[in-house]
Every structure is written in structure tokens, then in C-alpha cells.
């Protein structure tokens, strides 16, 4: 049991759970590479100011959810609550603009938010995301959404919906905000406490409030307030998606929580997940790079929550291979059998088999028990007899079949057998 417990909203990931992580990370990397993305790893700690500036002072994240502390040098440090701000910071700090535009980056890693933990919402959660810097073309928005769709499909998911909206730009959004303020003015006393505050600070969030959903239904929609530039952009994106036969819905309530988005915003919802149903979200953010000190650079990206994807995979009963399966356990007993065991282990690994070499001083009987616990498919046994005759005894742990083979043939026989079963 132990004296120490992990914090609420964090988890230890191991055993059968691990296969989902291998699978999701592997598939994501494959697809990102196919689309010409390169990986970026940024620090988990960043200056607090970065998130205040980028995510926005008025957002729930900055107001109440960040893990912020002072380090021994008196700096205000924050565990990153999302991935985009750090990637943008890195883009500016490393002058990646010189690497040619657009540049395509992806990241995989933990994020931290102090929220009330529930299914699909953890305090340490993990995201996989992409960012494209240096292009404002509708085709880059379309490719981002096409990639997201291809990724989810390749994971084996079917029950999801792509929802798109345009949230306008610096030119047209102020007018839309005014229209919203006008609409909500008389309703204000009826709204929830949070929305009453957001009315002044972040009025568009009133549209995605879960409590005040009824009022949002009749609210003016942003598509009707877009400037010509935003309207043309949105129509082109839609047109590309139609040409590629991507299924989507236009949803005026997609506003995204963060201040830095502009134009295209999208979310992908899984239909089986209840309250925390958004498995992927993203959009265009054309002013963020400039906001944190870079040259004006348009950008677009998305983030996908690994924990929620796992819930979705389980919900849809997607079968996933476990890469941690042990093909062969090597058991040995008697003088000099340990050296033979090391050599056999090397031979088998060279053939691509997954090998668990016994590392403890114990009887063959107890080694067999251990082989069973680690779910080894085969056990290769080297005793004094086998050592003399240059053979190995193989036991198939699934069928119970046991036979002796000349050592030379062991790798080939095991490889064939483990492929067959
Ligand atoms: Zn606009
Ligand atoms: Zn509300």
C-alpha cells in the first residue's frame, strides 16, 4: 500500500493500459510524418506571463486552473496548461521563421490544469497536437481538419462528429460582440454566475455555457456577422472539405475557450462520451505570434486529448495489440547455464523476438511460475542436460506442448511458431 499516494487527478499508467498509449502515439507520429510535420519538445515549465499573455487573463485557465509557483530564484513558474503557447514561444525564440514558411510542428506531452477531476478530465492530462506557422490559406485549414479526420479514422474510431465554425477576426468580431451584448443585456439577471462575469470579459463564452444553453439557441450567430475576408475564407475551407468528402457540421456554438483564436475554429466530439465529449479541438490563431513578441505570423493547429481518445477507443471496443507481450522467457539452472542463457537471449533478440531472461536465483519450477506471471508465450529452458547436448527445451505456455530442439534451430522455430499463433 505504501505511505505516499498520487495526487487527485493524476494517474499511474502501466499494464494493459499502456497498449493504448503506444498505439495512439505511434499512429499519430506515423500520420504527422506522412503530412510533413516535425516533432518539437518544449519544457513543461514556462514563465507564467506567457500563458497570461497568450491564453488570456480572462479565461478560466488563467484565472483558476493553472499550477503556478515561485521557484527558488523568485521567478513565477507555471506548469503548461496547454501546448500551443509553448510552441509559439519556441517558434519566436528560435527564429523559426527563417526555416521557411509554412513550418509544420507536432508535440506529445503532459499538460496541467487544476480542475475538478472526473472521467476524461484529469489534472495531469496528455495532449498530442500540431501547429502550422506561416500561412493563412484556407487550404491549410482544410488540411488540418483532413489530418485530424484521418488520424481518428486510423485509430479505428467511427462515432465522432466534426463541428466547424468561423469566429471572425479583429475586424469583424467586435461588431459581433456588440450584437451579443445587445441580445444578452436583458437576459443578464437570468444567467449563471460565471456568465454574468463573462458578459464583460469574454462574452462569446456565453454561447458554450452548459447551464445557459437555452438562451444561446436564439443568440445572433457569428457567421451572419463575418467580414468579406472571413466569409470567403470560411466558404473555401468548407468547399475543400466537401471536395474531399469529409463529413462535418457547421456549429455556431464552437467558440473555443481561448482568446487567441480567429477565423476557423473546430471541435471533434465523440458521441459516446457524455459530458467530456470533445476529443480534439483546434483552429486558426493569426495574432498570437505577434502577441508574444514575434513578427506577424498566421498559424493554425489542434490539440487532441489522449485520455479521452482512450475512453473513446474503449467505448467503441477497438481491439489493440499489446506490444508488451513477452515471446520467450529464458529459464536456466546449473553451472554455466547462465552464460548459455545470455547467449541464447542475444540470438533471440537479434531475430526480433521479445525476450525475458530470468534474472533471479531460483529453481526452474519458480522460473516457470514467473514466466506464467509475465504472460510469456514460450519458455526456453537450459538445464545441465541441455548444456551437455547443446539443446534447449521449449515449452509452449499456451498449449502446454514441450519439446527439445538443437540450439541452432531455436530462433527459427520460435519465430515461426509465434507468428503462427
Ligand atoms: Zn473578419
Ligand atoms: Zn452560464
UniProtKB/TrEMBL annotation:
Molecular function terms, GO-annotated: histidine-tRNA ligase activity
Catalytic activity: tRNA(His) + L-histidine + ATP = L-histidyl-tRNA(His) + AMP + diphosphate + H(+)
Assigned keywords, A-Z: Aminoacyl-tRNA synthetase, ATP-binding, Cytoplasm, Ligase, Nucleotide-binding, Protein biosynthesis
Enzyme class: ligase
Record bears the keyword Iron-sulfur: no
Protein EC: 6.1.1.21
Main location: cytoplasm
Aminoacyl-transfer RNA synthetases class-II family profile domain sequence ranges: 1-323
The keyword Acyltransferase belongs to this UniProt entry's keyword annotation: no
Gene3D superfamilies listed in its UniProt record: Anticodon-binding domain, Bira Bifunctional Protein, Domain 2
Subcellular location per the Swiss-Prot or TrEMBL entry: Cytoplasm
Quaternary context: Homodimer.
Similarity section: Belongs to the class-II aminoacyl-tRNA synthetase family.
Protein name, per record: Histidine--tRNA ligase
Source organism of this protein record: Marinitoga aeolica
Protein encoded by which gene: hisS
Amino acid at each position: 500500500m505504501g505511505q505516499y499516494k498520487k495526487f487527485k487527478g493524476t494517474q499511474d499508467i502501466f499494464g494493459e493500459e499502456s497498449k493504448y498509449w503506444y498505439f495512439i502515439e505511434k499512429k499519430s507520429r506515423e500520420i504527422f510524418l506522412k503530412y510533413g510535420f516535425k516533432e518539437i519538445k518544449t519544457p513543461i515549465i514556462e514563465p507564467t506571463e506567457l500563458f497570461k499573455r497568450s491564453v488570456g487573463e480572462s479565461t478560466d485557465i488563467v484565472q483558476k486552473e493553472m499550477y503556478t509557483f515561485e521557484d527558488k530564484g523568485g521567478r513565477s513558474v507555471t506548469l503548461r496548461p496547454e501546448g500551443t503557447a509553448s510552441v509559439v514561444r519556441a517558434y519566436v525564440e528560435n527564429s523559426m521563421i527563417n526555416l521557411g514558411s509554412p513550418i509544420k510542428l507536432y508535440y506529445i506531452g503532459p499538460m496541467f490544469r487544476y480542475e475538478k477531476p472526473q472521467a476524461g478530465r484529469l489534472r495531469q492530462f496528455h495532449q498530442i497536437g500540431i501547429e502550422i506557422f506561416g500561412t493563412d490559406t484556407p487550404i491549410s485549414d482544410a488540411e488540418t481538419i483532413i489530418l485530424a479526420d484521418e488520424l481518428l479514422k486510423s485509430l479505428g474510431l467511427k462515432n465522432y462528429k466534426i463541428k466547424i465554425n468561423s469566429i471572425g477576426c479583429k475586424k469583424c468580431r467586435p461588431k459581433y460582440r456588440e450584437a451579443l451584448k445587445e441580445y444578452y443585456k436583458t437576459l443578464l439577471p437570468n444567467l449563471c454566475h460565471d456568465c454574468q462575469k463573462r458578459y464583460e470579459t469574454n462574452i462569446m463564452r456565453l454561447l458554450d455555457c452548459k447551464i445557459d444553453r437555452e438562451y444561446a439557441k436564439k443568440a445572433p450567430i457569428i457567421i451572419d456577422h463575418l467580414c468579406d475576408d472571413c466569409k470567403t475564407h470560411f466558404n473555401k475551407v468548407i468547399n475543400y472539405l466537401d471536395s474531399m468528402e469529409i463529413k462535418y457540421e457547421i456549429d455556431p456554438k464552437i467558440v473555443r475557450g481561448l482568446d487567441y483564436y480567429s477565423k476557423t475554429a473546430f471541435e471533434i466530439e465523440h458521441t459516446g462520451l457524455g459530458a467530456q465529449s470533445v476529443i480534439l479541438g483546434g483552429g486558426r490563431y493569426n495574432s498570437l505570434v505577434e502577441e508574444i513578441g514575434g513578427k506577424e505570423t498566421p498559424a493554425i493547429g489542434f490539440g487532441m486529448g489522449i485520455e479521452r481518445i482512450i475512453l473513446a477507443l474503449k467505448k467503441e471496443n477497438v481491439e489493440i495489440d499489446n506490444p508488451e507481450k513477452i515471446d520467450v522467457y529464458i529459464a536456466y539452472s546449473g553451472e554455466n547455464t547462465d552464460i548459455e542463457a545470455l547467449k541464447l537471449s542475444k540470438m533471440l533478440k537479434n531475430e526480433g523476438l521479445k525476450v525475458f531472461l530470468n534474472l533471479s536465483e531460483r529453481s526452474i519450477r519458480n522460473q516457470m511460475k514467473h514466466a506464467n506471471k509475465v504472460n510469456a508465450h514460450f519458455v526456453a529452458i537450459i538445464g545441465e542436460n541441455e548444456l551437455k547436448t547443446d539443446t534447449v527445451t521449449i515449452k509452449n505456455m499456451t498449449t502446454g506442448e514441450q519439446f527439445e530442439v538443437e540450439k541452432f534451430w531455436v530462433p527459427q522455430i520460435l519465430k515461426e511458431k509465434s507468428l503462427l499463433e
